[in-house]
Amino acid sequence: MFDQAINDMKKNIKEEETSTLDGTVDQHGRPAIRRRTGTWFAGILILVNQGLATLAFFGVGVNLVLFLTRVMGQDNAEAANSVSKWTGTVYIFSLLGAFLSDSYWGRYKTCAIFQAIFVVGLVSLSLSSYIFLVKPAGCGDEQTPCGSHSSTQLGLFYLSIYLIALGNGGYQPNIATFGADQFDEEDSKEGHYKVAFFSYFYLALNLGSLFSNTILSYFEDEGMWALGFWASAGSATLALVLFLLGTPRYRHFTPRGNPLSRFGQVVVAAARKWKVEVPQSGEDLFEVSGKKCSNNGGRKILHTHGFKRVLDPLVTRLRKSSPRGLTELQRMGIGLIIAIVAMVAAGIVEHFRLKHPQKTCTNCDGSSSLSIFWQVPQYVLIGASEVFMYVGQLEFFNAQAPDGLKSFGSALCMTSISLGNYVSSLLVSVVMKISTRDEMPGWIPGNLNRGHLDNFYFLLAALTTADLVVYVICAKWYKYIKFEGINSEDNNGEFRV
Q: Which are the contacts of 292, defined by CB distance < 8 A and separation ≥ 6?
C-alpha cells in the first residue's frame, strides 16, 4: 500500500510537471508546464481582452463618419473616404506589429506595447474632443452644428485617431495568434480547444462590436461624443490591465529573427537551382534534423508533391468530405457567395425604398414609406458571410503559416481587409466622379434619397462575383501544408466545388 501511494504521488508530480510539446516557454524562458500555463484560463483572459478592445475601437470607428460630418464639417463622400483610408491604415499597421512580434519582441510584448499606444490615442481623442472639438457644448447632434476648428486642433484630432490606428493595428494580428499559442496543438485535447478558440474569439469581437453599435452609438448620436470616447478609453484601459494580469500564466513562442532574410534566402536558392532535378524523397535534401528544428522553436514543413496538379482534382472529387467538416478554404468561399447575395438583397431593398416615397409627410424630403425592417435580411446575410470568412481566414492563416511567421500570417489576413478599404475609398471617388454630371447629384450624394445607392450595391455584387471566380481558381490550386509531428485526422483540405 505504501509503495503504491509513493508511485501514485510520483505519477501525479510527473503529470503536473509535463511540458508542452509544441516548444512554448513560460515568461522566464523555461519550457512551459502544461498544468501551470495556457489553456482556457489564459484563453478566457485574452477573449475578454479582445471583447473590451473591440468595444473601444468600434466606439470610435463605427460613428467616425458621423463625427466627421457633424463635428468636423465634412460631407458624406469625403467622410466615407476619410474613414476608409483610416481603416485601411489600421490594417497596414498590422504588418508592422506582426513583423516586430515574429522577429524581435514576441507576441506578448508586442500586444502590451501596442495596446498602451491604443490607450494613449483614445485618451488624447477624448481630451481633444472635450476641450476643443465639440464646441459649443452639445453640438454634433442632428440639430446643432459645431464651430470651425484651427489647424492645431485638426492636427491633434488626426494625431489621436492615427495613434488609435497604430495601436489597434499592431495589436490585432498578434492577439488572435497569441490566444491560439495557449493551446498545444500537439496534444489532441488542446488541439480541439485551439480550433474552438477562434470561434470564441470571433464571438468576443462581435459582442464588443454589438455594445459599441448600440449603447455607445446612442450617446454619440445624441451629441455626447466626449462621453462615448471616454467610455472607449476606459474599456481599452481595462482590457490592458486584464491582459497584464495574466502574465504569469501565458505561454510564449520565442521570436525567430527577421523573416525577410530567410524569405530572401529561399527565393535566391530557388532561382539558382531552378534546373536542378528534385529528388523523389526529402531524405536527399539538405536540411536540419527534426530535433534541431524543434529545439530552435519551429517545426519542419513536410514535403509535398503539389506540382506533380494532374489526377489530384479527379481523386479529390471522388473522396468523401473531410471528417473535420468544411475546410477553411471552403468556408471562405461560402462566405463570398453569401456576400454576393447580401449585396443583391441590399440593392433590391434600396431600389424599392426609392420607389416608395413618403406621401403623407410634407417635410420628409423624399423619405420612403418602406419599413426599416426590410434591411434585416441583408444584415443577417452580411453577418453570416463574416462568420464564414473571418473565422475561416483566422484558422487558415494561423494553421498554414510556419511557426516563425504566425503573426505575419494573421497580419496578411488583416492586410487584405486594408486593401479592401483603400479600394473602397477609390471606388467611391470614381463612382461619384462618373455618376455626378450636369443636374445629376451622383449615386452617393449627401441626401441619399436623391441618389442611386442601389446601383452602387449592384456594382459591389458584380465585383464580389469576379472576386469569387478568382478565389475559386486560387483555392483549387492551393495545397495545404503539413507540419512534422502534428496529430491531425485529415490535413489535406483541398478546395472542392
A: none
In angstroms, the CA 90 to CA 457 distance is: 25
| Helices vs. strands in the chain: H and E counts, helices first | 16, 0
* Residue ranges in 62-187 assigned as alpha helix (H): 64-70, 76-100, 107-128, 151-181
Alpha-carbon dihedral angle through residues 159, 164, 170, 175, given to the nearest 10 degrees = 170
CA distance 142 to 112: 38
Question: What is the DSSP secondary-structure string of 321-381?
Answer: PPTT-S-HHHHHHHHHHHHHHHHHHHHHHHHHHHHSB-SS-TTSSS-B-S-GGGGHHHHHH
| DSSP type of residue 296 | T
pLDDT for 306-316, tens place per residue?
Answer: 544 633 444 34
Residue with cell 458571410: 385
Neighbours of 284 (CB within 10 A): 8
Give pTM, 2 decimals: 0.69
Query: What are the cell numbers at 444?
Result: 452617393
Rounded CA gap, 340 and 351, in Å? 17
Residues 450 and 354: beta-carbon distance below 8 Å: no
Q: Do residues 60 and 231 touch, judged by C-beta distance below 8 A?
A: no
Give the number of other Cβ atoms within 10 Å of residue 274's Cβ: 7
Q: How far is the C-alpha of 458 from the C-alpha of 460, rounded, in Å?
A: 5
Please give the DSSP secondary-structure letter assigned to residue 150.
-
pLDDT in tens, 39-74: 999 999 999 999 999 999 988 988 888 888 888 888
Q: Which three cell numbers stand for residue 175?
A: 492577439
413, 397 in Cβ contact below 8 A?
yes
In 246-327, which residue ranges form alpha helices assigned H by DSSP? 259-272, 290-295, 312-318
